[in-house]
Records
---
Amino acid sequence: MSKIDLKKIKVILLDLGGVVFQSSGISNNRINWYIINQLNEKYGHDLNIGNCRLSTFVSEYSYLTNQFLGELEFLAGIFDTIEFNKELIEILNVDHDIIIVSDNYRENIEYISQRYRFSEWSIKQVYSFDYQMVKSNSEFFKRLLDELDFEKEEMLLIDDSPNKIASAAANGIHGILYKGNDEIALEFID
């Protein structure tokens, strides 16, 4: 990939899971990541695009773990085991606007957008359930380009998925594969 001219970049398209939110994979008394990962295989895609409700996921999770968790209790337990990457937000917000682009499911977003005040550090949020497709579908980024007042050359996607970087690239949007804050800082700080 050719070098990105960061002086032309006005907006960062920023992924949430694996970038802004990073899981340690450590379970606690409510959260069993092994079972969550199994259920994500079963329900993940349908949750992301809005064809399944979190209540279905939590109901099966509760049954498998012999617990009786409500959705909010489940989400609180999840985010007690996940770290918020505030440092990355601070690095990126110095000279760029941020638009969140995520495959997270609606109930999760409703919970974390309040807890982590998305509206304070992002100018817009776009989710798979808004478009009824995940970001690995290049139509996601085509539709995003049609809706935004930015040119593709003015945007940069930061994501931890090579498939999603490729999907954005198919629409002319440059991307950086997230591997850690240090690598991002080297790109953004003179």
---
Amino acid sequence: MEENISIEFSQALAGLDGDKDLYKTLLDCWFEEKQFDKTVLEKLIAKDGKISAASYVHRMKGAAGALGAQALFKAAQELENILKEKTQGDIAKVCEQTDMLYRKTNAALNAIRTNL
């Protein structure tokens, strides 16, 4: 059974001093362009190496954190740490996990967006 993704909306809103309009703006920015694509990540690793790939993941991680998407934030942090060689791990496996969480997070954020 697939786990549901919980968005920590109240926590995210508190981090934005309760500014719902700012949250809506960040949410719109999230959907303006795809935040994560494992094919792009794989190409970055192949072409530019792990540092460029880590930067790509870092950008998405920050946006996920600002929106209260903690599960995705944590997965992206793990992937970034592996890419920066701060920790060891299976890049392909963590990339798959991050991709799955990204897709589920998009659905959860879209539901919030619809209700705001």
---
Amino acid sequence: MPRVDARARIVHFGGGVEQVVVVAVRDEGRRLDVRDEAGQVLEFALNPATARFVVAGDARGPRLELLGEPV
């Protein structure tokens, strides 16, 4: 189950990786807001077909990987 302040990373198509922190968990853990290093907040949603977090509204965009314990 995702938690606020947990470390995560955004994996972009082509292999780029961006470190982020979970700032909100909604919809029983199916929607997450994360803050990147620049302070931008992005929303991710759990894709029921793949069980992966993807940018809300874009199943083919970057995906979110949860890394573990809060920072």
---
Amino acid sequence: MLNNKVRPMHDFHVQNGEYTGRIMDALFKEMPSMYHTSGYREVLSIRVRVFHDSGETPLFYTVNFDWSNRRFLKTLEDLDVLPERGQAFDPRLLDGQNVTVTILNEEKNGINYSNIVTLKSLKPGEGFCNGGFGGAK
């Protein structure tokens, strides 16, 4: 388990590729937005422990919360938690879920960021190594 009070030995960087991971937690939160009249947008923020050859790295996957947002709906569908029409979604359903993530790195202002570009539920028996350490597929 990662201790968030200890400065990590490594940067939050993972090479491009597909990895296994485990969702640590998911929650709705407000983030600044220059595109919304309120100045804020509501997002689903999913923290994922990504397992790779050097250990594990926590990364975030964030998607705007809006039932008409195709990316939001696809995310819930890929994670097997899309509720039926008229039903509520509880982000706690995602806690502890094993997933496959695709990482794509991007450089901004001289800093290299690892971004989760796809996040999918890992079905039982689908390549999750003991403890999760499997590196890129």
